[in-house]
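Hey, quick one: can you model this chain's 3D structure?
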Amino acid sequence: MNSLRTHLWRLTLVASGVLLAVGGPMHPESDARDSLREELATMTADERWVPGHSIIVVSTLLLATGLWLAWRDRAWPERVQRTLGLAATAVSLYVVETVAHLAAASDSHALAHGEAAPVAFTHVGLSLVLYPLTGIAVAALALSFAKAQTGWRRGIVGLGMLAGTLHALSVPLTMVLPDVELSPVFAAAALSTALWSIGTGLVGAPARARAEKRDLVTVG
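Sure thing. Here's the predicted structure for all 220 residues.
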């Protein structure tokens, strides 16, 4: 039981990454030639929207849970704790956006007929704030891990920084460059986030983090 508790954050991150790798590719592609309303109408009417986003909601919830478990257990070196807590908070807020993202399907008919679509545009508003916030938090967390990881494990750090950067830029770029097809940016953000989550869970905390924890127990 103690072993399961110790590694639960790792198992949760791996599960999150696997689900994101499954749900992410199910997202319907957009067409930069259409207006935002038209794109939303087309995508939310796609039969893949609900199952794909349902998986993404669960994946994001697991990611937030895994980060909070790692923070609670002080699995990483003490200097990472603050950044880890901030990232866990940001991802927890992002869960709200993923739920609104999923619920936007309820406005599919309204979007297609020019009617009020409060749920869909609430999702857009939340994404403008929470995508950059979450992306920056993940990139900062990955960067803080760089001081604790060594050798080939630093490749996972690079994945996290790439994932966070792409995630942070994806929605703002969509608004700034409405005529540019940015679906590949969203896809790359999802894939790199999935790989980072899986990699972080599989590699676990560096040995010296565990050593620090043993030292604290001995001193206490």
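One thing worth noting: Confidence is low (pLDDT under 50) at residues 208-220.
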